[in-house]
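step: validate -> pass
step: tokenize input -> pass
step: predict -> running
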Amino acid sequence: MAQTVALSATAREKTGKGAARQARFQKKIPAVIYGHGRATQTLMVDALALEQALTGIEPASTLIELSVDGKTTRTLIREIQRHPLRPDIIHVDFYEIKSGEKLTLKVPVHLVGTPDGVRNAGGVLDQVTREVEIEVLPENIPDHVELDVTALKIGDSLHVRDLSIPNAAILTGADLTIATVVPPRAEEVAAPTAEATTEVAEPELIRKVREGEEGEEVEAAAGAPEAKAAPKAEEKPKGKKEE
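step: predict -> pass
step: emit ->
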């Protein structure tokens, strides 16, 4: 069954962006209540009390006993507006409900158990649909709907038709997939790039040729044969005088 939370609010006389901004500056959240042909009434709710009331519950399927200036009204939260950049609540819509009148609302689907395909085959559980729309009396509103996925193998799926919600009519299409087990995702190994596989040529060592070595360096580079030693000068015979 749905949880019930008590919350207090006060009537808000001033409307418009300026009044709403001023209310938030005072740690109050602008709100409205409507339903059953009543004129929409503007309210203010304490920001801290609202955050505490919403902690640990499913707001869309939780009954709110809203006390406005001493008069208590049974409501559901129809919409919560939050700041686009921060988690702060900036506005709340309350909808008055009556006993004996069926409501149309969405309830979350909670998956229960670990699928066989995940335990034994390394598969991955993928929840495709996280809430379903139902028609139900206020006293029979479920907090959430549970779906057992323990028997699912790889490739198996569960659909809306597999849900069972006592005292409620499921309005969401029966063939809509709730959860499925998909094969394990293979790890992609990046192929080596052409740059990584190209061997970098070692730089050529350049040495400055010293004076006197230039001729030898040129001959060695051209593959010239080694130079032979010059013949010695012919020795003069001893004892013979020069003429």
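step: describe -> The chain is about 15% helix and 35% strand.
step: cleanup -> pass
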